[in-house]
Design a protein that fits this description.
The protein is α/β, with parallel strands linked by helices. The chain contains 12 helices and 11 strands.
Length: 357
């Protein structure tokens, strides 16, 4: 997928109270896919501009971009990142190195200078961040939490990601997407063991589940133990495998050999009458944003399926689409990802099944 990243940064005093803003747009439709903004304390305009670029590139990775067109009104950043100007200032060098590392994750990144009047969206976000910076500074002075070791600030939303228990299709290793299958007896036992484990976690604010029965049954086991309701979210549903639903890997490969081969390495390819992993990425990103908007700063158990959970981990790790093809998740495997309000994230646990032993 191709996206456009518009980024900006500013400082009121140069150096002075500074902030950045970035917006990611779909490269074809122009739809806004992500926004980022943040106050960074006292800094120069150039430092703020680089922070805007970094935030924009990180957000582009989260939405599954492969080709990125960066547009900024900072001639300095555009020329330095394009390799035409040397990066001499010591404060710029680590920022440029971080931006280059992020850019290296995409198949292609281009940089274009644009006049300020064409960068109004990112400029507005940067000014909003600077306007909010005074409040953030005052809160810190009054004893607010210190930044995370990675630089992340604020209280993270902790997502405990739980895959559902066994179904008849998972026993036979068949594609199980939108089909609404129940848990087997073993699946119910697995869900019970996972619930027992997670019921010991303090401060669970909500149990949010895919609406499909296998996930909802798994979620209900935990909800009953902690006295909560199961909240369903359509965005957490499994991939639509189209005509491959219910088939084994070998059967799908025999039915549509060319499409199946391409699908295994290209997240934009759809199964016949199905859904691409790029489409899953977009709806899971939206679901994540909605969950955080509702339960931000708290712990939420998310009960879902292989692809949505892999996608949330991929977004937290800020890695490319090949992650989907190299990560394995077991039935009722538990993973944990934390998402910070400034755009940072961290993965604390992946596919732990110790409760089953």
């Amino acid at each position: 997928m191709k996206v456009i990243v518009e980024a900006d940064g500013g400082s009121r005093g140069n150096p002075g109270p500074a902030g950045y803003g970035a917006v990611v747009r779909h490269g074809v439709t122009g739809e806004t896919l992500a926004e980022r903004k943040g106050a960074i304390g006292v800094a120069t305009n150039n430092v703020a501009e680089y922070q805007g670029l970094i935030a924009g590139l990180r957000a582009a990775g989260e939405v599954g971009a492969e080709i990125v067109a960066v547009r900024m009104d900072s001639k300095l950043v555009v020329e330095q990142m394009s390799g035409r100007w040397k990066i001499k200032h010591p404060s710029m060098q680590p920022l440029a190195k971080e931006a280059q590392a992020l850019a290296a994750k995409f198949s292609s990144v281009g940089y274009e200078w644009i006049p300020r009047e064409r960068n109004k969206h990112a400029d507005r976000l940067a000014n909003e961040a600077m306007d909010g910076g005074k409040t953030q500074t005052r809160a810190a002075a009054e004893g607010d939490k210190q930044p995370h070791w990675s630089g992340a600030t604020g209280d993270p939303t902790r997502l405990i990601l739980l895959r559902h228990g066994q179904t008849a299709l998972s026993v036979e290793r068949r594609y199980s997407g939108r089909g609404d299958h129940e848990l087997t007896e073993l699946g119910l036992e697995q869900a019970e063991k996972a619930a027992e484990r997670l019921s010991k976690v303090d401060g669970i604010a909500a149990v949010v589940s895919s609406p499909l029965r296998r996930a909802a049954q798994t979620a209900r086991k935990l909800a009953d133990k902690i006295g909560a309701e199961v909240v369903t979210h359509q965005g957490l549903i499994e991939t639509d495998f189209g005509t491959w639903e219910g088939l084994t890997f070998a059967e799908a490969a025999a039915q549509d050999p060319e499409v199946h081969r391409r699908w295994l390495g290209d997240t934009s390819v759809k199964p016949p009458n199905g859904e691409s992993f790029d489409e899953v990425h977009a709806r899971v990103r939206k679901a994540r944003a909605e969950i955080i908007a509702e339960y931000g700063g708290s712990t939420v158990v998310v009960v879902s399926h292989v692809t949505p959970i892999k996608t949330l981990l991929r977004q937290a790790l800020d890695v490319g689409p090949q992650f989907l093809f190299r990560m394995h998740l077991d039935l009722t495997g538990v993973s944990i990802a934390e998402f910070y309000p400034d755009g940072h994230a961290s993965v604390k646990l992946v596919n732990d099944t110790s409760h089953l032993s």
